[in-house]
TrEMBL record:
Naturally occurring in which organism (per UniProt): Nothobranchius rachovii (bluefin notho)
Locations listed in the record: Cell junction, Tight junction
Classification lineage: Eukaryota, Metazoa, Chordata, Craniata, Vertebrata
Chief localization: other
Keywords linked to the UniProt accession: Cell junction, Coiled coil, Tight junction
Polar residues compositional bias, start-end: 120-145
GO cellular component: bicellular tight junction; myosin complex
Classification via InterPro entries: Myosin_tail
MF annotations from Gene Ontology: microtubule binding
Protein name: Cingulin
Family: Belongs to the cingulin family.
């Protein structure tokens, strides 16, 4: 058969679609073809419905034939797709060639696009005969008991059924030439499947048309055509009988079932891949969260570095203070030299003004004592304020201890919540028992299924007993095939039950996972209160119902148990209320503590202001004293030195006060930090409460979902049971009807046996040919199996790539964990460095105190040195005076006693001078020692600062390295995202390829079946014109042309 639609199951739908289009066209045109279309839609529709029913029974699809007809009509309304169906002889030809599905048009196609390749009337009629051989042969095939296959009425039927499309072809053949029509059809085909330009498509059309012209044979005259037509009609009748036998072949049905099973397996593989992709997406989301956490830690580290930099700047400020102190010391030294010079000049004046100076010094001493008393009073105030600050710190520490106690109480509450989660687990066990009861119901369903299998076995036995009664083997084969179908349906039901069991087990595991998540979320106090109240109400209702049902008093033991349960529930509810009240009281305590801390901070600020006021007073007093010193500097050097010493002492005291003020500011800063930490703790507590409430809501939602799923499962199980029962009843009725039909066929088969004996001889001759064709078909099947194996290998390769991507993701997660560990180590190192920095600051403070003490000691020693020098000068002057007196006395005549006394005095004075020189030398040595100590302290400070800068640089380098690692991890994550997207695209492409290949496999299987039936007719020498015309559109030639014109979009 040239068109190849008589033996393919898949092309029946396509034939129906063509028939409907033709009917619509002929209904629109008011010609005489109405009667013929009615005849077309009569017997031909009945034959198609029967063939469709047999195909659907073989594929276990219980859909009615009308739906299949609608699907086929919706699937191929366009004439281009009909051409492709005609080329390939299968429904999924569009998918095989990579063409997109045509849009659905519910009106008749335009006459310009219809494929018409015949100019002469004989050739068109030949093509129409080839096209409509299946309906023409199916009508006598179904009514084989009434009339033979080679009657003239069948020929008239064929002519009447083929007219609609042929008449349109003849009407349009006068308008356009044959070449233009072929060019238009090929152009439309190429235009639908490609996005190339019109010029390229026109070149391709010309090349294809040239190849078609090279393949086209010459036409055959009308006499030979009539003979071939008659021979074809006889062979079609013979092939119709062979078709009916081949349709009952169980091997083809088994192949279809195996293809369906393979499709199901591939769908399961797709679901697995999608789940794995979802898991990878969740892992990527976790990696992003970890990345954000790392960025937050890096920001915190940067903030800490900024704090370290501020501290270093402060230390640099202390350096500037040291430099300024040294400059002040130099200035003081210069002033000292100037003062010494002025003192040398004014020593003579001072001797005359000693008496007046003594009185002024006494008055000055009184003023200084008053200043000292004021200073002592201010210092006492400072000490009292410091004591208050220390007391406030002790209060803050006490509050910290209280916070710790509250945290411990919250931990105890968490443990109580864990106990309550154990109660939830008990409820879970009860639900598990309920699930077990549902499993028992499933076992009952299994028993019913086994009973049904026993009934089927009894039916088989009955059929076996009825076999010797029926002389024909065909109905028994039909019954055995139907029994096989029933057994296949049973196996499918078994597989569905197993799938339901697996789904049920999965849902049980999901329930277990949800319960574990509930154990992790251990704070569901209010929800449990409501739950306990509802349980109490339910218990009361159940108790009332039990009393109403039984209408008698229950036993005392049951009453006591119920009362105990009620008491326990009430105790639990009271405990939960107490816990809630305790939490509220703790929140109020936190608020009160925060208010107290704020009041303490305000008091500290006031104390700081008082200290600043005292500092201003002291500075004013210092300025006054310096003015007095400047006014009195011309009067007395000794008073100036004393005043300088007092000023220095006051300055040292001022420095100490400044230090204490800085300490107070630091303590205030620490108190503020502690308050901020307390505020943060408060906010975290609020967030935890919100999170707990959200967790409670989520658990409620999860429980509601579980209840809904359980209810849906029960409903689905009931519906499936009802469906199974209805299917069993339908199968019983089918078996009864089939037995009755088998009996009828047995009566009819006797008459057909005589006819079939003649046909068997002819078929034996054709079997030899079919064996050869079967070998070819086996080779094609082997090729298809190789294609399938290639697909499976490619899928495995993709799975390997997905696994490799998973391993890469695991390695990235490990690297991220390593980075987290590194960050933790860096944090620990930062904490250690903070401790070291604090130690260094303490050392610096101590060294500053030591430097101040050394400075005060140096000033004292310098003042003592100056006093000694003054005494020395005075003694030298006194010695000179004494020597002058001795010389004067020597000039006079005095007694030796006075001279000896004077000499003794001179020796004593010389001894005193020597002692004073020794003391001076010792003071100089001690001064040198102090200077050496100062130098050493400066060196140690410089070394410590250098070490601190080095540590800071190291930290900066570490932070930069961490940033680089984070950036690298981000780039790697982006790369992984790209790989994941690429893998998804590859999977989607593979799925599309697999679908296309499945469609191609089904098309090839239908082609194989069609060829297995139609090859004997094609091998006959009588076929000339019709075979040659349709061979132009054979699937192999068209596929070769399309592959040469680069239209293949799918590849194995």
């Amino acid at each position: 058969v040239p068109d190849g639609k008589s033996g393919s199951y898949g092309n029946l739908d396509g034939g129906i679609g063509l028939r409907r289009d033709r009917e619509e066209m002929w209904e629109g045109s008011g010609r005489e073809g109405g009667v013929q279309s009615n005849m077309w839609s009569g017997s031909y529709r009945a034959g198609l419905n029967r063939s469709l029913g047999s195909v659907r029974d073989a594929q276990s699809h219980p859909d009615p034939p009308q739906q299949a007809i609608e699907l086929s009509s919706n699937r191929r309304p366009s004439p281009v797709n009909r051409l492709i169906n005609r080329f390939d002889g299968a429904t999924p030809a569009d998918q095989q060639r990579g063409l997109p599905p045509a849009p659905q048009h519910h009106r008749a196609p335009s006459p310009h696009v219809m494929p018409k390749l015949y100019t002469s009337p004989p050739s068109s009629t030949q093509s129409s005969v080839g096209r409509v051989q299946t309906p023409a042969t199916k009508v006598p095939g179904n009514s084989a008991n009434r009339r033979p296959a080679n009657e003239p009425t069948q020929v008239d039927l064929i002519d009447s059924q083929v007219t609609p499309d042929l008449l349109l072809d003849q009407v349009q053949s006068g308008e356009t030439s044959k070449e233009e029509r072929v060019m238009k059809t090929v152009y439309n085909i190429l235009r639908q499947g490609s996005s190339e330009s019109d010029v390229v498509i026109s070149h391709k059309v010309k090349a294809i048309f040239q190849k078609i012209q090279s393949i086209m044979p010459k036409e055959i005259p009308g006499d030979e055509w009539a003979r071939e037509k008659r021979g074809l009609e006889t062979k079609v009748a013979q092939l119709q009988a062979a078709l009916q036998q081949d349709r009952r072949d169980p091997g083809l049905k088994a192949e279809l079932e195996s293809c369906l099973d393979e499709n199901l397996q591939l769908q399961e593989m797709l679901d697995r891949k999608k789940r794995e992709l979802n898991e990878t997406q969740s892992e990527l989301i976790q990696l992003r969260m970890d990345k954000e956490h790392a960025e937050r830690q890096v920001r915190e580290l940067e903030d800490q570095l900024v704090e370290f930099q501020d501290e270093l700047r402060r230390e640099n400020g202390s350096k500037t203070d040291l430099v300024s102190c040294q400059a002040q010391l130099m200035e003081l030294h210069q002033l000292k030299q100037k003062l010494e010079e002025s003192l040398r000049q004014r020593e003579r004046e001072l001797t005359a003004l000693k008496g007046a100076l003594k009185e002024e010094v006494a008055t000055h001493d009184r003023e200084i004592e008053a200043l000292r008393e004021q200073y002592s009073a201010d210092m006492e105030k400072l000490r009292s304020s410091m004591e208050q600050v220390s007391q406030s710190q002790a209060g803050i520490e006490a509050e910290r201890l209280r916070v710790n106690t509250t945290v411990r109480s919250l931990q105890q509450q968490l443990e109580d919540c864990r106990d309550e989660s154990s109660h939830w687990m008990e409820q879970f066990h009860t639900t598990r028992d309920e699930l077990r009861t549902t499993k028992q119901e499933l076992l009952q369903l299994r028993l019913e299924r086994e009973e049904f299998e026993d009934e089927l076995k009894e039916l088989k036995d009955r059929i076996g007993t009825k076999k010797p009664q029926t002389p024909e083997p065909r109905p028994s084969e039909a019954l055995s095939q139907e029994l096989q179908r029933c057994s296949a349906d049973l196996q499918k039901t078994k597989s569905e039950l197993q799938n339901q069991r697996t789904e049920f087990d999965k849902k049980v595991m999901e329930v277990i996972s949800i319960k574990k998540s509930q154990q992790n979320q251990e704070a569901e106090l209010r929800y449990e209160m409501d739950r306990l109240k509802e349980q109490l109400q339910k218990a009361k209702e159940e108790f009332a119902k039990a009393q109403e049902k039984n209408k008698r008093l229950p036993s005392q033991a049951a009453l006591s148990d119920l009362e105990q349960k009620l008491v326990e529930a009430q105790s639990e509810a009271s405990q939960l209320k107490e816990k809630l009240s305790l939490n509220e009281e703790e929140l109020e305590m936190y608020k009160s503590r925060l208010n107290k801390a704020q009041t303490d901070i305000n008091g500290l600020h006031d104390a700081q202001r008082d200290q600043e006021a005292t500092h201003t007073r002291l500075r004013e007093k210092l300025s006054r004293l310096e003015a007095q010193l400047q006014s009195n500097a011309t009067e007395s050097s000794e008073a100036e030195l004393a005043l300088h010493s007092e000023v220095r002492g006051l300055r040292s005291e001022l420095d100490e006060a400044k230090r204490k003020a800085s300490r107070l500011t630091q303590e205030l800063h620490e108190v503020a930090v502690r308050l901020e930490a307390a505020d943060r703790d408060k906010e975290t507590l609020k967030q935890n409460v919100g999170q707990l409430e959200e967790g409670k809501r989520q658990q409620e939602r999860a429980l509601e979902k579980l209840n809904r799923e359980v209810e849906s499962l029960n409903a689905s199980l009931k519906e499936e049971n009802q469906a199974l029962r209805s299917q069993l009843e339908e199968q019983k009725e089918r078996t009864r009807r089939e037995v009755q039909e088998a009996q009828r066929h047995g009566n009819e088969a006797k008459s057909e046996l005589e006819r079939n004996e003649l046909d068997l001889r002819r078929l034996e001759e054709e079997t030899s040919r079919q064996k050869k064709e079967l070998q070819l078909v086996c080779e094609e099947r082997d090729n298809h199996q190789l294609d399938k194996e290639l697909l499976t290998n490619r899928l495995r390769h993709l799975e390997g790539e997905v696994e490799a991507s998973k391993t890469i993701l695991g390695e990235k997660t490990r690297e991220i964990r390593i980075l987290d560990d590194k960050l933790k180590r860096v944090e620990l190192e930062l904490e250690e460095e903070r401790s070291t920095v604090e130690m260094l600051t303490e050392r610096v403070a101590r060294s500053r105190d030591q430097i101040d003490q050394l400075r005060s000691e140096l000033m004292q020693e310098r003042s003592s040195k100056q006093d000694l020098e003054l005494d020395k000068n005075a003694m030298e002057r006194h010695l000179k005076e004494l020597r002058n007196r001795v010389a004067d006395m020597e000039g006079h005549s005095r007694s030796s006693v006075g001279v000896s006394q004077l000499e003794n005095k001179v020796q004593e004075l010389e001894d005193q001078l020597r002692a004073e020189e020794r003391e001076k030398n010792s003071v100089l040595a001690s001064q040198r020692r102090m200077e050496r100590k100062l130098k050493e302290l400066n060196l140690t400070l410089d070394e410590e600062r250098h070490a601190h800068t080095e540590q800071r640089d190291q930290l900066l380098l570490k932070v930069k390295a961490l940033k680089r690692q984070v950036d690298e991890s981000e780039t790697e994550l982006e790369r992984m995202d790209a790989l994941r997207r690429k893998a998804q695209r590859d999977v989607e492409e593979q799925v599309e390829l697999r679908e296309a290949l499945q469609a191609r496999v089904t098309a090839l299987e239908t082609n194989i079946k069609r060829k297995a039936v139609t090859r004997p007719a094609l091998d006959s020498s009588a076929l000339s014109s019709d075979e040659d015309d349709d061979s132009l559109y054979d699937s192999s030639t068209i596929t070769s042309i399309l592959t040469e014109s680069n239209l293949q979009t799918s590849s194995c």
